[in-house]
Every structure is written in C-alpha cells, then in structure tokens.
Amino acid sequence: MTTQLLTTTEQDLNIAAAIIRSGGLVAIPTETVYGLGANGLDPAAVKKIFEAKGRPQDNPLILHIHHKRQLYDFCRELPETALRLADTFWPGPLTMILPVRDCVPKVTTAGLDTVGVRCPANDATREIIRLAGVPIAAPSANSSGKPSTTTAEHVLHDMNGKIDAIVDGGPCRVGVESTIVDLTGPRPRLLRPGGIGPEALEAVLGPLVIDRAVTGEIAADAVVRAPGMKYKHYAPAAEVLIVEGSRQAAAAWVRAHFQPGDAVLCFREELPLYEDLNPTAYGAEADPASLSAGLFAALRKLDDGSVTRIFARCPTGGGVNVATRNRLRKSAGFHIVNANEA
Ligand code: TXA
Ligand code: MG
C-alpha cells in the first residue's frame, strides 16, 4: 500500500473523508498527538487500526466527534457533569468515558459497555469527521509501545505503507495525549492525565478520584479501568532513567555515571550544565507547555539506535506537568533515582 500525503486544503480534507467512508485508514492531526483514524462504526475498518499498530485487541479506542451534540448519538446516558465538561473544555484535549450505545461496535470499545469520546481542537480534523459523516475511532498514530507521534514525519516513520493517508496539520500544540476522565462511576475519576490539568478539571467537577494508573506502576496482569494504561508505553529503544533532584545534584550524578553511548535529556535552562555531553533539551522548565509539546519528539530523536541509556530530567508540579511526568515515568518503566539522596 502506498501512503498518500495530504494537506489541510478543502480538496484534501474531502479525499481524507472519502477514504474514511470507504473503510480506509487516515492519520489525522489533533492538538494532542496524531491519531490513526478509521470509521468508528465500521468493525472491519476498526480492525485494520489494530493490525497497523500492532495493538492488543483488548485496548479500546477513543471515538472522535466534530461537535458536542454528537454525544447524544453514541452515549446511552449523559450525566450533567459530561455536558458541563463539554461546554468548558471542548473542542479540546479531554476524553470522557460514558455509557455506550449499541450502534458503536464491540471492536471499537473492546467489548466494554462504555466508550471514550473526544472532540479535538483541530479544525481540519473536525472538518474531516463532519465530511465523512461518521465518528472517527483513533488511537495515537504510533507503533504500539513507541512514543506517540506529534508530527506527520513521525507518523510516516511508523506507518508508511501500512495506512492509506496522512493529513499533515503541522506539529501538535499540546504534544501529550488527552486527559481521560471516567464519568460512569459514583464519582468522576481521572484515568489518564493530559493536556487539561487535574486542577482545571476539579474547578468544574469538584474533587476527582485519581486512578492509581496515573501515578504508579501497574502489573501487566492487573485489572485496570483504562486498559491501555497497563502496557509498556512511550518507550524508545534506549533505557530511560529519570534523575530527580536539584539541578546541581542531578548534573553531578549524571556526570558520575555517564558512559559512551549515554544521552542527556534535560530542560533548556540546564543545557550549560551538560555542555560537553551533547545534551538534548525538550523544552524549558519555566514553560510547561514547551515540555509537553517537545517530549515525544525528543524521545524519538534519541531513538536512532546509537543511544543505549537516556538520563532524563522530569518536571514537578501540577497542570500539564502531571501528564509530562506520567509519560516520562512510563517511558522509563518507573526507573527513577533521586540525586539529592544519592
Ligand atoms: O489525545 C488523545 O487522546 C489521542 C488523540 C489521537 O485523540 N488518542 C489516544 O488514543 O491517546 P490511545 O488509544 O493511544 O489512548 C486511549 C486510551 C487507552 O489507554 C485506552 O485504554 C483508553 O484510552 N480508553 C479508551 N476507551 C476507554 C473506555 N471505554 N474505558 C476506559 N479506557 C478507555
Ligand atoms: Mg497511545
């Protein structure tokens, strides 16, 4: 299969929508990461997503809609909290888990009686969904287990020859996947931190239950509410080790352990401390949005086969840093040292 590269002209968006309607696979830009999209109501099309990604079949997909009114088409019940969240954060990086209607096939929801729904903040992609006339089921457009894709080049690297087309919408602004909140239980539960910080959600919802998948390591056989959270994730070929602690202590620790083939992934402010070690900055610590936007691209850049170990600096605090920290910890397999105590 030849993978067609499309732009965001009206003509190309029509081509993308036609491919979706006819059961093909199109990578779509969103504000979070690129998605690997298919008609979410067509079981045969959705199966192709799992094949192209090498994704386990028990991992459900998010259904992308172009307007919040489509919630009524695919969700059986809509708690008042769902409408409030949609009004506040959509279009935007928020996925809500809600009771699913029978029109959504089992392969999309991995057999669950719930569905994840999101209205992305990307005009081109919302237009494709509108033109296609069907919701688009889409996981992140990376090979399963690898860092998510935040540019069309990343998608081409992982998916060339496996999908029909890629719509190039430029680099993703947020850079980490959407926040997932489960509204099917007695209290709203945060399943995955993302572009919308927990504080912003709590300002609308009141106190959130934070699922242990957000902070801790999960055994592969554990029963988890977001099935995707249990798999190895965001991992480059190199081993990732997070070095926590003050700037000076971390730099001293890295210098004491650095060997040929190792790499440093740090904040822009720290580049001078690692000058002679060819460091990579993924963003500025003073600008959390730059860290989330740059993380996956930096992990991919260091995934060229020549790097054996990555010493990574990880942000503290709330907001989108919660998501950046969650992704970096997962890519490190929760392998963390505290240089202040070392
Ligand atoms: O920002 C995003 O959410 C991106 C873009 C493309 O929209 N999509 C994305 O999809 O990150 P994916 O498949 O890589 O991650 C979706 C996560 C998985 O961990 C999956 O298990 C969980 O959402 N999920 C999907 N449906 C669910 C459901 N009904 N109940 C619980 N978790 C669900
Ligand atoms: Mg993913």
Task: Summarize this structure briefly.
The protein is of the alpha/beta class and about 350 residues long. An eleven-stranded mixed sheet has the order 1-8-2-3-7-4-6-5-9-10-11, sandwiched between helices.
Mean pLDDT: 95
Small-molecule binders here are:
threonylcarbamoyladenylate, magnesium ion
Any idea what the CATH superfamily of the largest domain is called?
A: DHBP synthase
Strand tally is 16
Beta-strand content estimate: 15-25%
Provide an overview of this structure.
By secondary structure, this protein is α/β, with parallel strands linked by helices. The chain has an 11-stranded mixed sheet with strand order 1-8-2-3-7-4-6-5-9-10-11, sandwiched between helices. The chain has a 5-stranded parallel sheet with strand order 14-13-15-12-16, with helices on both faces. Helix 1 packs across helix 6 and helix 11 packs parallel to helix 12. It is globular and about 60 Å long. The structure holds threonylcarbamoyladenylate and magnesium ion (MG). The site of magnesium ion (MG) has 3 residues, from loops.
Helix and strand topology:
Blueprint (H helix, E strand, L loop, with lengths): L3 E3 L3 H12 L4 E3 L6 E5 L3 H11 L8 E3 L6 H4 L5 H10 L4 E6 L6 H4 L4 E5 L4 H10 L3 E2 L14 H8 L5 E3 L11 E4 L6 E4 L5 H8 L3 E2 L1 H4 L23 E6 L2 H11 L4 E6 L12 E4 L4 H14 L7 E4 L8 H11 L4 E3 L4
The structure holds threonylcarbamoyladenylate and magnesium ion.
